[in-house]
Amino acid sequence: MILSNFFIKTQKNISSEDISYNAKLLEKAGFIYKNSSGIYTFFPLGWIVIQNIIKIIREEMSNIGALEMMMPALVSKQIWQTSGRWDVEIGYEVKSKDKADADFVLGWTHEEVISEIFSHFINSYKDLPLAMYQIQTKFRNEPRAKSGLLRGKEFIMKDLYSFHSSEDDLFAYYNQVALAYQKIFKRCGLNSIYTLASGGAFTIANTHEFQVICGAGEDEILVCSSCGYAENKEISNLKPGDKCLKCDGIIKLEKSIEVGNIFPLGEKYARDFNLKFKDKNGNENYVIMGSYGIGVGRLMGTIVELFNDEHGIIWPKEIAPALVYLIDIDKKIEAKELYNYLQNKGISVIYDDRDLSIGEKLQDADLIGLPYRLILSPKNKDLIEVKLRKDNKIKQLSKEEVINLIVKNNENIK
RNA sequence: CAGGCUGUAGUGUACCGGUUGCACGCUACCUUGGGGUGGUAGAAGUACCGGGUUCAAUUCCCGGCAGCCUGACCA
Q1: Is the separation of the CB atoms in A384 and A399 below 8 Å?
Q2: Is the dihedral of CA A163, A164, A169, A171 positive or negative?
Q3: CB atoms < 10 A from the CB of A151, how many?
Q4: Is this complex's ipTM strictly greater than 0.90?
Q5: Where are the alpha helices (DSSP H) in A120-166?
Q6: What pLDDT is stored for residue A36 in this prediction?
Q7: Distance measured from the CA of protein residue A344 to the C1' of nucleotide B20, in angstroms
Q8: How far is the CA of A361 from the C1' of B26 (A)?
């Protein structure tokens, strides 16, 4: 994108109140705007990041045969009463002006909705297994929204639900989802730790969380420093210094951010919504379900929380709003040509043609944090300065070398 | 939900019981061009809301609301 035709407003001074890196940096760099506590707007730059994350999620969901759909955010009272979750305090009630009582709760999860839907469409073992997901805004009355995008009252979530004819089939899929989730987080630059967690009231076994070690996190996990086996502190009998249950490693206590979780639900919602199928022998059985979530906004916040330095954000390649930040010091040099060339090669470029001093552009380039920064200078007409944001290394390269470096290294990222 | 801190131009802050100063941003013009270039001129605030104390409250007190931090909670 060409910045003079794009909306971008970086801030020079920001509130000292919110102390998390992701809140500070994303607001300063103009990716997000805080409307209220725990409620954010994504500006075009930030929305591109969200879309990049969603693209990865869609690809990996597709790889495990999950289909995308979209359910309503307004969920009727009746459906919550059926599952016994109408009174759960996490929900925001919605009532029309002409009524005294609420008719709806804003969806904070969709087990009920999807179970009701598929109770009409799943009849036979031939309809199973089935996996459907959506990417949607969820609303939760968090008593304490905090840490920027890490815990919001309104947030974008990918929620996947799967339907099976047996527990064996559920757990086979459950493990596939776990692998897909780890791929997603890896592509986002994160090392996620598959963590045993509480079963909760509605599950048939322990659940699992995907935790990313980070001091800003709210969770604590006991993790093996050798093999990576981990348990959430809430349910663990392990203590720091203990020997790992799976290998000879030593257990450590770490703060972490929960970026995803998976739940083997069993028959709970199938029973509530009379979701049954006939097996090969004509017998009726309840459908066995699983549910699987990823906090898309929280994932973005976690990436920023982990990848930053004193100058700004350092985006992983696949997530960055563009690969290249292009600055021309002397407007006489035709940077537009290089911009067009790279764009045509499928390399996304932010060309900073704003009427600002060079210093300001350099600061903004670091703040916004794209993987490559290119500078065209009148001092050195044949060479292009390339700065790698990852390690702040600077090289002087010819145009051909730049193209080699960027185009050849990033053919799979478009 | 409990405890703590905070609330002053768009943003960040300062001072003050006698109605607010600065910086950034913004507008116009000039200047400058390798790390927020320098200058000139300008616009912008009923000091969150309500009540109390006082001759006088933005300042002190109480209540609300909002924000942040800690904890509890957290499919």
Answers
A1: yes
A2: positive
A3: 20
A4: yes
A5: none
A6: 92
A7: 56
A8: 19
Q: What's residue A372's pLDDT?
A: 97
Look up residue A155 and give its DSSP letter: E
- Which of the nucleotides lies closest to A9 (Cα–C1')? B25
Q: How far is the C-alpha of A125 from the C-alpha of A97, rounded, in Å?
A: 45
Q: How far apart are CA A33 and CA A94, in angstroms?
A: 25
Instruction: State pTM to two decimals.
Output: 0.97
All structural domains of chain A, each given as residue ranges with its CATH number in brackets, are 15-309 (3.30.930.10), 322-409 (3.40.50.800)
For residue A162, give both structure tokens. Answer: 């799967």
- The partner residues of A264 in beta bridges, in order of sequence, read A290
Tokens of A213: 């070690």
Looking up tokens 């304490």, which residue turns up?
Answer: A144
Q: How far apart are CA A23 and CA A45, in angstroms?
A: 15
Mean per-residue pLDDT pooled into runs of 10, chain A (414 residues) = 90 84 95 94 96 98 98 95 91 88 94 97 98 97 94 97 97 98 97 91 88 95 96 94 95 96 96 97 97 97 96 96 94 85 94 92 96 92 94 94 91 68
Report, in ranges, which bases of strand B sit under 7 Å from a protein C-beta.
1-2, 11-13, 23-25, 32-37, 66-75
- Distance of alpha carbon A42 from alpha carbon A35, whole angstroms: 10
Distance in angstroms, CA of A329 to C1' of B32? 13
Question: In the numeric block, which tokens belong to residue A128?
Answer: 């199973």
Instruction: Report pLDDT for A330.
Output: 83
A48 close to A321: Cβ distance less than 8 angstroms: yes
Q: Report yes or no: A207 and A264 within 8 Å, Cβ to Cβ.
A: yes
| Secondary structure (DSSP) of A76-114 | EHHHHHHHT-TT-TTSPEE--TT-SS--EEE-S--HHHH
Question: Which pair of tokens denotes residue A159?
Answer: 């929620």
pLDDT attached to residue A140? 95
Radius of gyration over every alpha carbon of chain A, rounded to an integer in angstroms: 24
Nearest nucleotide relative to A263: CA against C1': B75
